[in-house]
Amino acid sequence: MEGASFGAGRAGGAVDPVDFLKQPQTILRIVTWIFSIVVFGSIVNECYVNMDSGDPELYCIFNKNESACSYGIAIGIIAFFGCIFFFIVDLHFQQISSVKDRKRAVLLDLGFSGFLSFLWFVAFCFLANQWQRTKMSKGVLQGADAARAAIAFSFFSIIVWVALAVKALQRYRLGTDMSLFATDQFAADPAAPYPGYPTGSGIESTETYQSPPFTETLEANPKSYQVPAY
User: Fold this and answer.
1) Which of 67, 83, 93, 165 has the fewest beta carbons under 10 Å from its own?
2) How many C-beta atoms lie closer than 10 Å to residue 219's C-beta?
């Protein structure tokens, strides 16, 4: 079963692009990639505004808290490149022949997805809290839709990243089960008898093989034969 674990077939098999794009995990990665673009794109482009006409300096729309905008942008960029990285890993996952390497990749996916879920939860709470404290002005109203979009898609990102973490956990459990299946097919004791043919295979046997054939020792010089002397 080497290479046939963790939700993928044997190593070296061809990857069908259509089937790959139809996989739930691939769809979730594309969705999170789009959500990350919406969040950091909205903050960068429209969430730095002039609070009043007399001050030309740009402030973060979230209660003038620069940390809120910086955090939203940072998480969006991390999620953006993380999606690209794991999309490539998924694309080449079937080419990984080692079960241990596949296990590491799945565990990395599980840890990263869980961590991003937490970071997006913090981003949603942080942005929503700062938005509630923001005093409305003419400049704020100009970027209000972008601020709401960043908050909304931060919340949606939590759900999708949790779903990716669940998918990674399912793949890990599947891989573990298949690895156990592969190791349990053979007896651990090398001295154990070799099992007979399975029932229904066309070759019935009532006894198990206990010892190798031709184990009788042969005498070098049989008693009934004498070597002639020349």
Assistant:
1) 67
2) 7
Torsion (CA) 92, 97, 98, 101 in degrees, nearest 10: 0
Residues 154-204 have pLDDT tens digits of: 999 999 999 999 999 988 888 755 554 444 444 445 555 555 555 554 555
Work out the mean pLDDT of the chain and round it to a whole number: 79
For residues 85 and 31, what is the distance between their CA atoms, to the nearest angstrom? Answer: 14
HEC per residue, the chain = CCCCCCCCCCCCCCCCHHHHHHCHHHHHHHHHHHHHHHHHHHHHHHCEECCCCCCCCCEECCCCCHHHHHHHHHHHHHHHHHHHHHHHHHHHHHHCCCHHHHHHHHHHHHHHHHHHHHHHHHHHHHHHHHHHCCCCCHHHHHCHHHHHHHHHHHHHHHHHHHHHHHHHHHHHHHHHHHHHHHHCCCCCCCCCCECCCCCCCCCCCCCCECCCCCCCCCCCCCCCCCCCCC
**Residue 37 to residues 114, 127, 154: CA-CA distances in angstroms?**
20, 16, 11
Asked if 171 contacts 7 with a C-beta cutoff of 8 angstroms, the reply is yes
Contact call for residues 27 and 90 (beta carbons, < 8 A): no
Are the CB atoms for 140 and 134 separated by under 8 Å?
yes
